[in-house]
Design brief:
With about 500 residues, the protein is α/β, with parallel strands linked by helices. The chain folds into three domains: about 35 residues; about 150 residues, Aspartate Aminotransferase, domain 1; about 180 residues, 3-Layer(aba) Sandwich (Aspartate Aminotransferase, domain 2). Helices cover about 45% and strands about 10% of the residues. The chain has 18 helices and 15 strands. The strands form five sheets. The protein has a seven-stranded mixed β-sheet with strand order 4-10-9-8-7-5-6, with helices on both faces. A two-stranded antiparallel ribbon has the order 1-2. A two-stranded parallel ribbon has the order 3-13. Helix 10 links the parallel strand 7 and strand 8. The chain is globular. It starts with a helix and ends with a helix. About 40% of the residues are buried. GO terms for molecular function: L-alanine:2-oxoglutarate aminotransferase activity; pyridoxal phosphate binding.
Length: about 500
Amino acid sequence: SKPWLTFFCCQLIALSGVSERRRGLAQEKMTENGVFSRDKVLTIDTMNPTVKNVEYAVRGPIVQRAIQIEKELREGVKKPFTEVIKANIGDAHAMGQQPITFFRQVLALCSYPELLNENMFPEDAKNRARRILQACGGGSVGAYSASQGIDCVRQDVARYIERRDGGVPCDPDNVYLTTGASDGIVTMLKLLVCGEGASRTGVMISIPQYPLYSAALAELGAVQVNYYLNEEKCWSMDLSELERSLAEARKHCNPKALCIINPGNPTGQVQSRQCIEDVIRFAAKERLFLMADEVYQDNVYAEGCQFHSFKKVLFELGPEYSDNVELASFHSTSKCYMGECGFRGGYMEVINMDPEVQAQLSKLVSVRLCPPVPGQALMDLVVNSPQPGEPSHTTFMKERTATLSLLAEKAKLTEQILNTVPGITCNPVQGAMYSFPNISLPEKSIKEAKALGQAPDMFYCMKLLEETGICLVPGSGFGQKDGTYHFRSGHPSLLKHFITAFHILRWV
């Protein structure tokens, strides 16, 4: 009898449904066949908003397109090339680097202990396998280990660190085995991040940076504090830039940590001893937690360059620093001469951590039960390799030396060849496994890229992929100074394919 009231009630019910949908409440609706279905509980509007801010350029849009192109090639689609060359990631074995024989022998024995009864393996490999298996539950690498890692492996890591650092003591209780270095880095960031608004944790990271850092900080809701490496000085770190970055950050957040990648990814620089001293003194003065990503510590090629661990320098500066500066350092089986990315082996060592916080760290790592046990076994072999007099020592040293020598040769080749291409300049690749050359793009390409809503170096790299089959990562995925453009190449051995491609696309 009151149409206006009926209309009002219908509108109210409709608005209520919209409100419920916006709150993420599931709604029932009838399909064409008369069956009721419900809206998704998890939608793009109801999911964790920090995840949507995560970006990881190393496996980003260009890589996804590369995968599609590979599929098209298999289906017979004609392209100007016959294969996709993936230079987007430091996956050494995927690009042909051969595994170290001793490592694979011991891992085979650990995975299938019946092989211990065969005569095809050297005795030192068998002894290592037996020792590792004896430390595993039920004598099997398929069993869980302690959350912090197998005890004897952590002891071997501690002895390795002591040898590397000239006798600086290392407590195995401060060593945590991890699922690659990435796991340890993210775990430490989880401990560091807290606060809201102006008190929110800020973490200083180098630009260019490895996108793990920006992605993890975005997911954790922390503030990314950029400090820029000096491209004109071979990507060196300037103390004045650290001071500028910190002062600016303190206006809007609470900077608590400083991350350093040495040797550098993506920039390939090796920081000097003086630089590391300056960074430690800076961290001590400003009360910053240091995070040293040292996964490329064996990859040093340039004459006059040397790897200095942050821990060694810290202790050589004396008790004023070694007793106070908080440090977490990271290593991995994925790089150096090993290249064993798939096993996900790694470790971190913590120095001067508050005992109550370290107890929380132990609790946090227990949530993921344990790192992969085969990865732990591999880490043990890296830090406890064959010694002189053992049957495998000669072959091991020959393979290790050959791999590192080849990487050094490729690093030099990278610099030489890229610098022959008009519009491309490349700093010397002092270490690690990447080059990060600067590319000078024509204004036409820059305008076209911006019209498409793309970063100019993303536009360039996509063109390179579509026309030559070479998959690189644009510098914009790592961060760079405004107005500059770069790309990262992860496999210098493929430069013979690059040279023609770069000339073709120079004036695109």
